[in-house]
Amino acid sequence: MMEEIDEINILNASILGMHRSIEQLSTLPEHIAVDGNKFKPYQEIPHQCVIKGDGKYLNIAAASILAKTYRDEFMAKIHEEYPMYNWKQNKGYPTKQHREAIKKYGITKYHRKSFRLLPEQLSLQLE
């Protein structure tokens, strides 16, 4: 999963995930509503991208809640596997504690390799 995100980037992986989700529906939708400003057409189904759509349309808001709930459960699951990264608390955001764990323990299969995991250290060239 993370390898695919690293290979095609997070935006394309998100769109691919949306396409895969649509493929699994027993009935294809007549219209696709997307929260955000990017989407690639799926078959011949009309779509509309709506920036901040979760605050404007109930169907997008409901999908956003389902996605967040799933993500939170996933982060709790990987926290059990790798508690030193404190994913249960930070939900994958690069907190100071999370960065310290990366320095100490390295990365896991859940870390995106193409993402800057640690800030580059600033240095001055002094003569």
TrEMBL record:
Family statement: Belongs to the RNase HII family.
Record flagged with keyword Membrane: no
Gene3D superfamilies according to UniProt: Ribonuclease H-like superfamily/Ribonuclease H
Keywords for this protein: Cytoplasm, Endonuclease, Hydrolase, Manganese, Metal-binding, Nuclease
InterPro entries, alphabetized: RNase_HII, RNase_HII/HIII, RNase_HII/HIII_dom, RNaseH-like_sf, RNaseH_sf
Reaction catalyzed: Endonucleolytic cleavage to 5'-phosphomonoester
Cofactor(s), names only, from the UniProt record: Mg(2+); Mn(2+)
A Pfam family matched in the record: RNase_HII
Source taxon at top rank: Bacteria
Broad class of where this protein is predominantly found: cytoplasm
Enzyme Commission code(s) on record: 3.1.26.4
Descriptive protein name: Ribonuclease
Locations listed in the record: Cytoplasm
Native source organism of the sequence: Mesonia mobilis
Keyword Repressor: no
RNase H type-2 domain sequence ranges: 1-127
Described function: Endonuclease that specifically degrades the RNA of RNA-DNA hybrids.
Phylogenetic classification of the source organism: Bacteria, Pseudomonadati, Bacteroidota, Flavobacteriia, Flavobacteriales
